[in-house]
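Structure tokens please, single chain.
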Amino acid sequence: MKVAISKFTQLGLSENEAKAYITLLKENPLTAYEVAKSAAIPTSKIYEVVRKLESRQMVQAIHGEGSKLFVPIALNDFVQNYKSLIDNGLNTIKDELKGIKVGMDTSYTWHVKEYESLLLKVERMLKTADSTVLLSIWPAEFSLLFESLCRAEERGVNIAIIHYGIANMKVGQIYLHPIEDTIFERRSDRGFALIVDSKEALTGKVAGSATEAIWSMNEGFVMMAEDYLRHDIYFIKTARRFAPILQERFGKRYEKLMDIYSDDEMPRS
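Here you go.
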């Protein structure tokens, strides 16, 4: 239940409130004391917890024989009520603030340090893409974003993807990178880059559970990121057509090509 409790806390509930509600979903009706014992909540705090759940309309008190009992709102009802609450709140905010006209400062960068935040940012970028998507990605993230990419393609967005490893799903134009093993051994992490409509870019890396990425609409940053992906695609197209020649000169896994600090066919200056 750790994941469910974590998600409840992201919605504004305390950990104890989440534990109490889940306990009541499993078994009800229960007295406050029984909820505390079953959910491992200190009895000194349980009455405050159930009062807050009542105020959120997540539990309801009923009168038993000598003791007040509590029952939970059905999970589906809670989900629908919460969705309605959020939707109504967001619509109200849009209506109240629609007259404010503020130009966006495109010079700043937004740092992303959580994997879930990275995926949410990418989902938003793909959802609002108008014309083009350039993407450099590994299989783990590709499988998570595949449906969003398909929806973008259905809207007529042109998609080019640099994929590290075997791609078992097809969307847009996929370019399989020919030297993913060498890159992974050198960096021991997964790179990620997304450029949408040549207007915004998100680049970063995922190493285990650690994530570090930067998003920006800065023209210089976007241009640099887009050029990087475009030149990767230029190389992949070239390697696909002239692989035997390139591997003879640079090694079976392009080791000499990856070594940018030396070139045995060019004299040192």
